[in-house]
Amino acid sequence: MIGEIDIFGVFVPAVLVLMLIAYLINVVIGKVLTRVGFYRLVWHRSIFDLGIYVFVLAAVIIVSHRLLP
């Protein structure tokens, strides 16, 4: 995987792009969990959301490494 991505002449770290993708997926997961009412069972929502974000970020990084040699 390359270290930087060129976006209109601006070099941004690849991890930043992966973190943005993970954040967007995390927002969708949070909306679904709110609609289902799952957060009523969670003790501390912020810590739970952070944990979900870390898992999603790890999954995004693993998938990107598998897809891009």
UniProtKB/TrEMBL annotation:
<keyword id="KW-1003">Cell membrane</keyword>
<protein>
    <recommendedName>
        <fullName>Protein AaeX</fullName>
    </recommendedName>
</protein>
<keyword id="KW-0472">Membrane</keyword>
<dbReference type="Pfam" id="PF07869">
    <property type="entry name" value="DUF1656"/>
</dbReference>
<feature type="transmembrane region" description="Helical">
    <location>
        <begin position="7"/>
        <end position="30"/>
    </location>
</feature>
<feature type="transmembrane region" description="Helical">
    <location>
        <begin position="50"/>
        <end position="68"/>
    </location>
</feature>
<dbReference type="InterPro" id="IPR012451">
    <property type="entry name" value="DUF1656"/>
</dbReference>
<keyword id="KW-1133">Transmembrane helix</keyword>
<keyword id="KW-0812">Transmembrane</keyword>
